[in-house]
Amino acid sequence: MEKQHYTLLLVEGEHQPPSVVRRYLEQCQKTEFSVDVANGFHESIARLMSDRFDLVLLDMSVDGLIATDFLKHANIVGFEMPVIVLNDDRVTKDVSELEEALLHLGASDFIPQSELTRGLLERSIRHVVERKYIETQIAQLLKRDPLTGLGNRLIFEEHAELAIARARRNSYQIAVIFMDLDRFKQVNDSLGHHVGDLLLTLISQRLDRSIRKSDVVARIGGDEFVLLLDNIERPNNASLIAGKILHAVTRPAIIGEHSIEVSASMGVAMYPQHGTNCTELMQKADMALYECKQQLDQQFLLFNERMQEKLKHMLTLERELNHAIETEAFELYYQPKIDLKSETVIGVEALIRWPMPDGSIRMPGDFIPEAVRTGAIIPIGEWALEVACKQIAQWRDLGARIPIAVNISPRHLKLPEFTGKLLEKVKRYDIDPGLLELELTEEALVETGASNIFILQEIRQAGVRIAIDDFGTGYSSMRYLKVLPIDCVKIDKTFISGGEGVELSDPTITQAIIFLAKGLSLDVVAEGVETEAQKQTLKDIGCDKVQGFVFSPPIPSRLLNQILFPEIGYKAQETY
């Protein structure tokens, strides 16, 4: 068997005669060593600064060589090689306490002189070096994207901070670019994830070939990439380079039998104009990318002051949202659903509101997009479901069965624990699951994918109802309606009250949707009914259930209670 060879620094006391350690190292049978000897603390640190070693043997057999000082200094300057401490336990009173302290400072092993043998020393050296090698390999794997082989966010941030430090010293600029592929989800959905993965690998190779050796590219998730362009003379140069990279990336991709048109969008941020650390630059490049995606005629955008103000607003809103979640500052308002034949309340839709200290109300359109962007929509949705289940139980205790529909995000369906948490709430409040309805928009339902269809089926089999909201605004078809596990179709208000007059804005499409849904044995609810004329027309064309301001705006539960119960003059009707 071929012997392992290691370079080793043996640190001894300044006036220490050659120790038994040197003889043991020469006698090792499975390992060869190139041994350099350093005498004392200062010489050992100097050697570490100038040469590379596989490990350090720190011999403490002579008083005055303080291992703690050595290890502390090694930590400060960033030495990462393993260190084995050999201690003369004949002069050390509390060996266990010293061992614990040295291991805490980063020593890889601690061997008392009284236990030291050639075999133990060789085994310890091989073990700590091999362990360090494995740790290094794992660390490298953790910094690499397993699909494309590019670096990931972790290694990008390390390179970026070093590049920023160089740019600061040498007074030059660098650029951070966020890039993602346009319509990548359509590739996955239509051609399969295998083709999508091959496309990402191809794009990664194109990116890697299109940058300089001094630049860095990393994949940070899905179809998102981040690039660092080092030593840029002026922002215009960054835009020119971004254009060249886009040109290289967006050539058609031939994958198997498929020819895929590739397009991408980029957001650019510059050091030091837009940020002085990696976090700021990535945040602003991401913001520029977001703005770029909103403008269909742009492929890349440089961060600007207008985005700065928007970013400040977003960050402020994010902090306020987190505080509102922690303090449960939101409130559910309820808009009644009405049966047109009996004109009784047959259910309600829960709509979130955010009361402000000054008495004003923040509407969902002001904060839900930011909640979706940051992920805050998850705890907000959980809170809404909790409050809705509690409200169903309270109305039940008052003698009424009032179904509540709650809007949820498709992000909830991606959580493996979502179904369990939902059904736990139903069980905890001891409510009929049929009185709880989950509403997802048409687009969200279609984009949920096969795995989430299974989740919806599981929820529905447990008795919870599923509704498709804003129907008619997306790209659903009869095929989707037949496949999706839903109970109810809600016709989008643009077909009801989107016109200039008091009549239905599009009665032909509305009637077609009603006919289609009823043919599939689905309930139909028309949203946004504002006039008596609209209500009557809906009734004439076969719509049984409606919701809108003609009956009631969304109102707090305390006001809704005045409508729901017989003693106030209204009757709550059992349904479903």
From TrEMBL:
<dbReference type="GO" id="GO:0000160">
    <property type="term" value="P:phosphorelay signal transduction system"/>
</dbReference>
<dbReference type="GO" id="GO:0003824">
    <property type="term" value="F:catalytic activity"/>
</dbReference>
<protein>
    <submittedName>
        <fullName>Diguanylate cyclase (GGDEF)-like protein</fullName>
    </submittedName>
</protein>
<dbReference type="InterPro" id="IPR001789">
    <property type="entry name" value="Sig_transdc_resp-reg_receiver"/>
</dbReference>
<feature type="modified residue" description="4-aspartylphosphate">
    <location>
        <position position="59"/>
    </location>
</feature>
<dbReference type="InterPro" id="IPR029787">
    <property type="entry name" value="Nucleotide_cyclase"/>
</dbReference>
<feature type="domain" description="Response regulatory">
    <location>
        <begin position="7"/>
        <end position="128"/>
    </location>
</feature>
<feature type="domain" description="EAL">
    <location>
        <begin position="314"/>
        <end position="568"/>
    </location>
</feature>
<dbReference type="InterPro" id="IPR043128">
    <property type="entry name" value="Rev_trsase/Diguanyl_cyclase"/>
</dbReference>
<dbReference type="InterPro" id="IPR052155">
    <property type="entry name" value="Biofilm_reg_signaling"/>
</dbReference>
<dbReference type="InterPro" id="IPR035919">
    <property type="entry name" value="EAL_sf"/>
</dbReference>
<keyword id="KW-0597">Phosphoprotein</keyword>
<dbReference type="InterPro" id="IPR011006">
    <property type="entry name" value="CheY-like_superfamily"/>
</dbReference>
<dbReference type="Pfam" id="PF00563">
    <property type="entry name" value="EAL"/>
</dbReference>
<dbReference type="InterPro" id="IPR001633">
    <property type="entry name" value="EAL_dom"/>
</dbReference>
<dbReference type="InterPro" id="IPR000160">
    <property type="entry name" value="GGDEF_dom"/>
</dbReference>
<feature type="domain" description="GGDEF">
    <location>
        <begin position="172"/>
        <end position="305"/>
    </location>
</feature>
<dbReference type="Pfam" id="PF00990">
    <property type="entry name" value="GGDEF"/>
</dbReference>
